[in-house]
Amino acid sequence: MGEFEVHRVRFFGLVPAGVRCLAYLSRGGRLALARTDGAVEIYNFGANYFQEKVIPGHETRSVEALCWAAGDRLFGAGLSGDITEYDLARLCVAHSVDGCGGPIWSMAANGSGTQLAIGCEDGSIKLFQVVPDGIQFERNLDRRKGRILCLSWHPSGSHIAAGSIDILRVFDVSSGLTVQTIMVNYHVQKVKRECIVWSIAFLSSGTIITSDSFGRVQFWDWEQGTLQDSHTVSTSAALSLAVSENEDSMIVGTSTGATYQFQLLPVKMDSQEKRWVRTKPFQYHTHDVRAVVHSSTALISGGLDAQLVIRPLMEKINKKSYDVALRKFTFPHRRLVSCARKARLLLFQFSQHLELWRLGSTEETGKDGEVLPLSRMPEHLVQLKSKGPEHICCSCVSPCGSWVAYSTASRFHLCRVQCEGNSISVKKVPKVPKLLLPAYQLQFSSDSHRLFIASARGSVHVLQLLEPGDCKHLHTLQPPSGSSEAVYLLASSTDGLWLAAVGGDWAIHVYNLKFFKYHCTVPMYNCAVTALAIHPLINTLVIAYSDQQLFEFSILKKKYTSWSRMVQHCGLHKSWLERDTPITHITFNPKKPSHILLHDLYMFCVLDKSLPLPKNSTLLMNQNTLKQLPETARKQELHAFKICKKFQPLLFVDLLDEKCLVVVERPIMDFKTQLPLPIQQKKFGT
Amino acid sequence: LFQVSDQKPLGCWSVKHGQVLTCPVVCNFETHEYIAVHDDKVLRIWKNEDINLDKVFKATLSAEVHRIHSLPNGGPVVLFRGGGVRTLDVLLEAPQQEIENIISDEVIKWSEAFMEGKQPVLIFTTEKDGDFFVYVQKLKTNTLHKYKLEQQELSKPMSFTAYIKNRIITLLCLCSNDCVYKVLVPLQQNTEEEEQILPKSLLLNLSVSGSVLKGTSFVVLDKDHIAVLGGLTASNEEPKECLTIWNTKFQTLQTSKELPLGTSGQLWCYEEKFFFTHGKVLTVIMYKCETSSLAAAVGKLKDGQTPDVSAFVNWNTLGYEELADSFQSQQSGALKYESTMALRSERNAVASVQPDDLSVGKLLLNLKDVPRRIFEDGIRQLMSQAQTLELQASIGSVVTALTNRYKANSNHYHRTFMLEIVQTYDLSYSLCPDLMAVALERKDVHLLQTCLLRFPDIPEEMTYACLEMFLSIDEDYLKYTDLDLDSVICYIDIESNNKEVKTEIVENGFSTEQEEGTWDTQLTEESSLTSDGELCPVGAQRAALLNAVLCSAYSEAFLLPHLKNLPAKQAVLFLRYLFYLYVKCSEKINTTLPGMSSPTISQIMDWMCILLDAHFTVIVMLPEAKLFLSSMHKFVRAQVRFYSELNKIEGSLQELQRLHHQKDPQTYSIEVLEII
């Protein structure tokens, strides 16, 4: 097929924030995850663990606890002292109530999801009633000194167990009184260190499980106040624990990055007496495991090393299969990089600033695998800092490289960037139209004359960009039947006629930009769209779904193309379908209309529609094999998927021109070195 | 695990001043009531909610209570001092009923209750004038049996415990001579005979390597383990109180825990937890008994190894189960019982093999006094008939028969036949313990060599005896012996006088020239001679024998005391040979000797170390060893230097690797990629 000059970029210094807390909604299979920077993400387990929603972070809004209540409403609470309900359709804060107890360390919903309990800095536990339009303060429980670090409801909702420093208490919900006080350190007289109860779980049998800063997991009988069992899992703190719904298994996370599974097992075969036994240790994290969740099928843990790990519980299955494979998520499932093809610029999006870089160049050519000498080094052109505590939710650079747009939750910014020789000037466009914010995705037209802004309720705003630095609002596109979900992906055609928009309901609407009117809707497919793009020559829409399916839809004919039908008929290769990470970007080679370029975190692929699809019996990743073969023998081995795994992990791939690619890598080790040091563990021989 | 003092008391009751609780309080599991007796005759029953003991149910009995036993499904049973037994229900119907006195002036020492099927059974022991009696009372049928315990001289039972299995009560008693005895008390007893005497059998001797455990109380954990609480007395030391777990199957001390604060001497055990007082607190310890295996007992159990790896039968361990089974199969009656005991006492006798291979045993008996040819034919026939399951056992008895035949008449030495057996079957030392001793006596070095290579469990004493014999035996005798020379053929030239066989030497970085002359010339000559490996200090036959010793398994601690007895001359010879092997090994980078079953370098090094340990002073003093020792030292030192040089190279190579690795992560590069 040919040789590419690959600009291999490793200077995108992205450091994903650590995972602070998790909340799993078993009905619907959704996992809510909060990061230390206050961002909240929703993973959809049904859609192949796709990170379908992201609520951007906020400097002052840390999230210490998340919980689902009243069905699928998501609440968060943090050190700002507010309880926040999130609007998952508009991806923003719906409303926020002051807890009036200082920083909130913990929050838990009762079994039926009708009440929320929060544990505050001042030692109070407050109950809130979940009402249709928010939450309402109900009552305070008996207040004692010492911050409440963790909370757990008895499954019946009658009692609450709360962990504090050196102590755990049980409260009667109806009377609000303390009915049991247990000193967790009662018998460790020698140690003067305080013992922090980091996490707590209240079982229906009346057993309370705590994990504490001494690395212990302890089992208490709440009525008697006696210690039933104690396991020391770590020399440092045991930070988090979660119990399965059946209360027969649990997971504990420690500050050494290790997680442990405990199971309630019969002491002997067929014995009635059961005991909690530490069964499996796992070491998936390098840093504190602050949050764990035990779903019915998997152990889920999140660490300060920014990793989310999902470990399916399929012990009985010996055969290694895709369903029992471990999943690790470190990077977001969306693009943080945009590229100005013509100007050869890259725009990197960080949480509170943007970086604009110009790529280097070379005069040489070479053979496969050679590193070419640089004639010009890459150049960091400008850094744009976003003001205020809100994090940037989306950004884009225009293909000509002279416009940069970004948005935070409440503000939209458009800048005019001019590079003349060595001088750079950045001018903010002063009067941007007042639009419904936030913007969820920004996309410039290929001629850089228009900007498309994805917005709430399925709408897309179209701005006209004017020289030398102005803009005006042209139109707002709306889906014909209305939608409550925000648009999260956009794709425009090169000829400027078509725009495709994907909403949170996964519906893909196509608009005609000449007449600013709705054109058609792609047939609904029951999975999340992870990337889409319109072919520059034939105006077909290529769509990648989170279950790794690929579709090609003809906009003019309003139907799937014959190639797409053929793909569906033959099926994609098994190895392709069993990839872990979603396709996050699709692009085309204008000189080779049959080629589609796609990439996920671990590979990029040139899909040649003119070649036959690989069969399951053949090797999918056959590039290395092909390179060994003589030219004449290659022909028979060729298939449509030309996959390159040389560059990992890939955050972005784009085609600059027909012979030139840019790839943006972020090696895990590079950002690991920027994380705070983990707890030093002595390893043998070091 | 935890101390009960950490826990919160859930309830506390006390009797009035002046009243004394006279037996342990029990809980009735069915009604959740507590039952106490104070002042010998006054019964109190109360529930959790009751606070004042004075106001709860009270019943005054007509006789003094010894103890109350509470059974999970049978309700409490009251044992009176006079030996009378009543269930609590019966007693409460008429508290003042008359209680018979059964045991007259015997004193109850210990009692215990069991459920046998649905019937509560109470067993108690009494003492009178040094005689001990066992009473078994079945409550439903109201039958009482009295037995007398077998008298033991100079020791008397101090503590009892019992468990019930397969309708037999096994009574264990800890005696004052620091032994645990086992007494089987049959439950099915129809014949109303006169007082029977129950025989005792030694279960366990509570002594380990010189120190003796003065047990005070003990409990049974499972069929192979018991726990004993007591003071461990080593000679001329203060007794230390400790809790110990013993393996009765292998007679070993499994584990022990010192209790420096002292105990009350009592030990209880419920649900896999020990309860005992330690100092002023009640301590609870969890325990777990692994399935007992010989490997576990001697601490050699490898992880993941199943306990039943051994294909060898240890006759001495086939005790308890068969006994219980055979015991169960018989109907009743003391006569049969006696016969079982007799059988057990005989089990070490060679002729009486276990019932499995009784036919083999019989056949062997028949063949006892026949001429050699007929004997061998008979045995061959026997071995071909033996089923695979019993093969090991049968072969074992065959070999034992062979050795016995030799012992009886030293003309009957079946040299080739025994060799054939050892080479063909997977035997072990424990299966035919006399074989090697006989071979040693006959100086049958080939058989010994084969045994050393094939037996996994030769005692160190025997290994040493072989070594000593191999070193001392006359070279001429060896020359005409047929031996397995596989292990030496590749590096010792059989024609050791032929000087032309001088192989090229790779010296592994060591060069004698480099060593600057603190040594006199003679020394250098000598050492170069040795390190060239030109002369093997022993002949090929002897080397092959010594290799067999080197390859056999041993434990250093057990070998060392024997090795100290090795005469100095032989020690030096052996050391020279080991050094020779060491040099040979070092010639080639891979440090292994060529050929079949040759010793590995680590085996050689281990033996060198242990030999030097055993004879260091002697060897240092010996003039003839001096030169050789210094050359050995030199070689070892050169090797150490050589390896430290390797260390440096390794460091630089590592650095190289690191540099190579570092080249990779540039932040920006333009590369060419071909996609086909």
Please give a structural write-up.
Chain A has five helices and 56 strands. By secondary structure, chain A is mainly beta. Chain A is globular. Helix content of chain A is 5%, strand content 47%. Chain B has 676 residues and is an alpha+beta fold. Among the domains of chain B are: 206-289, Thrombin, subunit H (Beta Barrel), CATH 2.40.10; 361-458; 480-493 and 536-661, no CATH class. In chain B, the strands form six sheets. A five-stranded mixed beta sheet of chain B has the order 9-10-11-12-16, with no helix packed on it. A five-stranded antiparallel beta sheet of chain B has the order 18-19-20-21-22, with no helix packed on it. A four-stranded antiparallel beta sheet of chain B has the order 1-25-24-23, with no helix packed on it. In chain B, helix 7 runs parallel beside helix 9 (433-441). Residues 300-358 and 494-533 of chain B have low confidence and may be disordered. The interface between A and B is medium-sized, with 47 and 21 residues.
